[in-house]
């Protein structure tokens, strides 16, 4: 398996990257690409030529599978991708959460809210009490604060 990530850049930057990859390095004015992250591992800087852009590492709401082919007939899975590096221009807002709210395609817009079950609202005290009672029962004891009704 390969290690892969998704790099989402603004359209103007995408054109420059495509030009850099397609042309020989000597004929392009953008001679270098660099991506570096700060200590937190979530924010960083993307450089192309002498231009700097801010970047963020975001978790995707679902896992995306990546495939490749050698003969245009058989697809071979190469990786599961769960994170995306989003490069932003100066005026763009900084994402507040570590999880990207939307998927990669328009049908996955707001995917976490629309397509997945919500976490149940549970009282932590009740969960702790039930766990403690289950551990007591498994150890051969009884549950605490239980009323047993016998009927004949």
UniProtKB/TrEMBL annotation:
Main location: nucleus
Domain of life, source organism: Eukaryota
Subcellular location: Nucleus
Record-stated family: Belongs to the TAF7 family.
Alphabetically ordered keywords of this record: Nucleus, Transcription, Transcription regulation
Domain (TAFII55 protein conserved region) ranges: 1-145
PANTHER family: TATA-BOX BINDING PROTEIN ASSOCIATED FACTOR 7 (PTHR12228:SF0), TRANSCRIPTION INITIATION FACTOR TFIID 55 KD SUBUNIT-RELATED (PTHR12228)
This protein's name: TAFII55 protein conserved region domain-containing protein
CDD domains, per database record: TAF7
Taxonomic lineage: Eukaryota, Viridiplantae, Streptophyta, Embryophyta, Tracheophyta
